[in-house]
């Protein structure tokens, strides 16, 4: 099955551990990994060159930072142009917070479900989760329920999987940066596209993480995105 799957990893100024992460994906059978260099600084160029030399890895490059939403769309377009060989996709973050085994499990679930979006959801009640992160994520889940009538336990997860059949709307979905992943969920709700949850490991690296998530500030920002999506639900696609 894995020869029909692709793992997509948007990346901006990644840590060297990204190489080990991709190597582990390949060692466990993933044959197609797409890394998007979203305008990273020159210090990261040698890392991307090393990745691009790996047989199972393709690096797509933006000349300047265009945002996670645009990076994902660049990869989605690349995949759709080669749809004869790829059927299932999983998007993962570059910071190593998504265990390789969980990536593989999401691909398996995606194949079983055939359609819809599979979210890799974390357990924010675990002891290692910083209290501010737990609070922020639970707050946004409650806000999502209020606005859209469906409770999702992890609206901020970057680990998501789906069939290539979903790319038609994902490619025209609005959002070039941070807001794209939220728009994905909102559009799916309004169009009755199934959303499934798959529990995953909850991994935090403390101060070593390269995640740019600031719990309270970003929770407010996310709530604003939800409100805008609620008001502009009919204009989320171009």
UniProtKB/TrEMBL annotation:
Keyword line: Transferase
Classification via InterPro entries: Glyco_trans_2-like, Nucleotide-diphossugar_trans
GO biological process: protein N-linked glycosylation
CDD domains: DPM_DPG-synthase_like
Every Glycosyltransferase 2-like domain range: 7-128
Keyword Transferase attached: yes
Protein name in the entry: Glycosyltransferase family 2 protein
Organism field: Jeotgalibaca ciconiae
GO molecular function: transferase activity
A Pfam cross-reference name: Glycos_transf_2
Superkingdom as given in the UniProt entry: Bacteria
Keyword Transferase: yes
């Amino acid at each position: 099955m894995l020869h029909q799957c692709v793992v997509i990893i948007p990346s901006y100024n990644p840590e060297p551990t990204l190489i080990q992460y991709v190597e582990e994906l390949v060692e466990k059978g993933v044959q197609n990994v797409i890394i998007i260099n979203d305008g990273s600084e020159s210090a990261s160029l040698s890392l991307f060159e090393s990745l691009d030399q790996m047989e199972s890895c393709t690096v797509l490059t933006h000349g300047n930072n265009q945002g996670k939403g645009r990076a994902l769309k660049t990869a989605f377009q690349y995949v759709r142009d080669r749809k004869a060989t790829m059927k299932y996709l999983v998007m993962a973050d570059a910071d190593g917070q998504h265990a390789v085994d969980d990536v593989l499990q999401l691909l398996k679930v995606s194949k079983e479900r055939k359609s819809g979006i599979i979210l890799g959801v974390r357990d924010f009640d675990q002891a290692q989760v910083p209290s501010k992160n737990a609070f922020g994520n639970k707050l946004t889940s409650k806000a999502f329920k209020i606005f859209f009538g469906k409770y999702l336990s992890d609206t901020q997860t970057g680990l998501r999987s789906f069939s290539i059949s979903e790319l038609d709307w994902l490619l025209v979905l609005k959002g070039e940066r941070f807001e794209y992943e939220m728009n994905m969920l909102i559009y799916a709700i309004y169009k009755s596209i199934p959303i499934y949850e798959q529990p995953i490991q909850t991994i935090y690296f403390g101060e070593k993480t390269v995640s740019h998530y600031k719990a309270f500030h970003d929770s407010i920002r996310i709530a604003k995105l939800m409100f805008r999506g609620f008001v502009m639900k009919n204009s989320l696609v171009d």
